[in-house]
Design brief:
This protein is an alpha+beta fold and 503 residues long. 41% of the residues lie in helices and 24% in strands. The model has no long low-confidence stretch (mean pLDDT 90).
């Protein structure tokens, strides 16, 4: 490997290079000949992600290219500031894909990692001397052996291992997964609940239809659990997934009950691997049937029949992944940085994660609790502001003449936007629990703002009631200040349509 040939390419020049048929063919050959790589280093994924994410990231690659071949490449991205610019000296540089790619590594012909990576990272730190370079998960320990052979880079690096649960079809314990009593029981309950159908999505229009439907469910669950709505925070994910689907990189399936989607799993696939790294979500209306777990149960069997060797359940210390796994290995987060303070924080986080796991605490659960504590402090400050705002007489408003109450409309709930009342996180968390508990919601929204949500629970004991007439108990009401003056009218309309509500 001639170090004179190793160079950096940045920005639009990367996109131009990927459009060069000769370079793209060489990249494809390198991908096929490299070891320890994943679908996230495939030329198709690389080009799609750079093109679609160009407004959020500046492409950055280091390559070793002679006149006749491409010997090595590492694909990175520099995070843009909100202004669209980058911090030249304090840049945050991530492996290509950031959170859209489960695994980030390099393409290097075997035996040449140390010479290429040492020079490549030297060039990066020369151009961005105070950068923080982070590879989310490197899929193999073999890819990191060059660090042990190079004291300089070993000193500048922090490596953190993560357990990766797998369904490995050839593993002796693979069959035993499907014999676990609790999994079989959940599967049998699901089958008895109605007509079950597993559908693999293979046509683009059907994929777009399914994606748009399940993203509402995904936003609802993420909003309730983590105070995030991915379709808003990551709007480019939709065009990215469409592009990847068209290249046959996505493995998409839904599990239906009586023709209603109860669960959706979007994974990324290569020849023998499927990675659970795109999207996993389920309908809270069917929570009691454990649709997500049943879907994994069915999908694991299906992938085996399709000839896949590995179903990667991905790191995360999730209990359901451990229950579905036949075995596990390790993947590694790699951080390279000259900043001693940042490295110390990474090392401290590494020790904290190890301590939490030793105590049976999932690190993500701990992080959510920390965020929730911050949220509660912020909430108290907001309540003070709200009282001042209300005292100034800003609690009223106007709405259209027509009140349109709809049943179980999750999009309405996601449109909650009341800075004077309960926080959005608390509202969605409460709403999600109510839906899972089987409560029925009547809601009204205008101009992408929730105005009303009224909750009812059907009464199972219909003693002295007409058996053909549903009976409900009122469980709670939210009315936006803008619609507060019409409360009596709203409740009258709700009462009038109660008899027509089904379970």
């Amino acid at each position: 490997m001639n170090q004179e040939n190793i160079r950096l390419v940045e920005g639009d020049a990367v996109l131009q290079l990927l459009e060069d048929p000769v370079f793209f063919e060489r990249l494809s050959n390198l991908y096929e000949e490299s070891t320890e790589t994943t679908i996230f280093q495939s030329p198709g994924f690389i080009r799609s992600w750079y093109l679609i994410k160009i407004s959020e990231f500046v492409p950055l690659i280091a390559i070793d290219q002679s006149n006749s071949s491409l010997e090595a490449a590492v694909f990175l991205a520099i995070k843009r500031e909100s202004s669209g610019q980058i911090k030249k000296s304090h840049a945050k540089i991530v492996g290509l894909g950031e959170y859209d790619a489960e695994y980030q590594t390099w393409l290097v012909r075997e035996g040449k990692e140390e010479s290429f990576l040492s020079k490549a990272f030297d060039l990066i730190l020369q151009n961005h001397p105070k950068c923080k370079l982070v590879f989310r998960f490197i899929p193999s320990a073999k890819s990191l052996t060059w660090l042990d052979e190079n004291p300089k880079w070993n000193k500048l690096s922090v490596v953190q291992p993560y357990r990766r649960p797998l369904m490995q079809m050839s593993h002796p314990d693979f069959r035993s997964v499907f014999k676990k009593r609790h999994l079989k029981a959940k599967y049998n309950r699901f089958v008895k609940a109605g007509k079950m159908e597993f559908e693999e999505i293979t046509e683009i229009n059907r994929f777009i239809e399914v994606y748009d439907e399940v993203m509402i469910l995904y936003d609802f669950r993420q909003g309730a659990l983590f105070n995030k709505t991915p379709s808003t925070s990551n709007p480019l994910r939709r065009p990215l997934f469409i592009s990847l689907f068209e290249q046959n990189i996505l493995q998409v399936s839904v599990l239906k009950l009586d023709d209603v989607i109860t669960s959706c799993i979007i994974g990324m696939k290569s020849k023998i691997w499927v990675h659970l790294s795109g999207l996993v979500t389920y309908s809270p209306f069917y929570s009691k049937h454990s649709p997500g777990l049943v879907h994994l149960f069915v999908l694991g069997k299906y992938l085996e029949k399709q000839g896949f060797e590995y179903f990667d359940l991905t790191p995360g210390d999730d209990g359901y992944k451990e229950r579905m796994a036949s075995n596990a290995d390790e993947v590694y987060e790699l951080t390279i940085c000259k900043d001693p303070v940042f490295k110390s924080k990474r090392k401290l986080r590494k020790k904290l994660h190890a301590f939490l796991l030793s105590k049976g605490i999932r690190p993500m659960t701990f992080n959510v609790k920390v965020q929730l504590s911050k949220h509660l402090i912020k909430l108290k400050l907001n309540h003070l502001k709200n009282r001042i705002f209300l005292s100034m007489g800003h609690q009223s408003g106007s709405t259209s003449e027509s009140i349109q109450l709809e049943k179980n409309n999750i999009q309405h709930l996601l449109a909650y936007d009341d800075h004077l009342g309960t926080s959005r996180w608390d509202f969605l968390s409460d709403a999600f629990k109510r839906v899972e508990a089987g409560e029925i919601c009547l809601s009204w929204a205008e101009e992408r703002r929730l105005l009303v949500s009224i909750w009812f629970q059907e009464i199972n004991d219909k003693t002295n009631k007409n058996e053909d007439e549903p009976a409900f108990i009122h469980k709670g009401t939210y009315i936006h200040p803008k619609a507060l003056s019409r409360k009596e009218e709203i409740m009258e309309i709700a009462s009038s349509i109660l008899p027509s509500l089904g379970p």
